[in-house]
Design goal:
Pfam families: RRM_1
Helix content: 10-25%
Keywords: RNA-binding
Radius of gyration: 12 Å
Strand content: 25-35%
CATH architecture: 2-Layer Sandwich
CATH topology: Alpha-Beta Plaits
Shape: globular
Mean pLDDT: 94
InterPro entries: Euk_RNA-bind_prot (IPR050502), Nucleotide-bd_a/b_plait_sf (IPR012677), RBD_domain_sf (IPR035979), RRM_dom (IPR000504)
Distance between the termini: 15 Å
Protein name: RNA-binding protein
Strand order of the largest sheet: 2-3-1-6
GO molecular function, one term: mRNA binding
């Protein structure tokens, strides 16, 4: 299941996201979205957790919590049809 995280600090790394979500289950990938031109964080990230139950627990537990001094928003990533 893919999860989206918004309002990340510019200092948050892929490893930080993985560490945050790992207590809830296996994390296949964790990536902070970066600007292609300058490499700076766009303030959001995508996490892939293979077990839906674990992913849903992580969403409930982590949504609206503080990370690096910022309140993050965590939700299921829903792709449009025919993506």
């Amino acid at each position: 299941m893919n999860i989206q995280v918004y309002n990340l600090s510019r200092n948050t790394s892929d490893a930080d996201l993985r560490k945050l979500f790992s207590p809830y289950g296996v994390v296949d990938s964790a990536e902070v979205m970066r600007d292609k031109l300058n490499g700076r964080s766009k303030g959001n990230g995508i996490i892939d957790m293979p077990v839906e139950r674990d992913a849903r627990q992580a969403i409930v537990a982590l949504d609206q919590t503080l990370m690096d001094g910022k309140k993050i928003s965590v939700s299921e990533l829903r792709l449009p049809p025919n993506w």
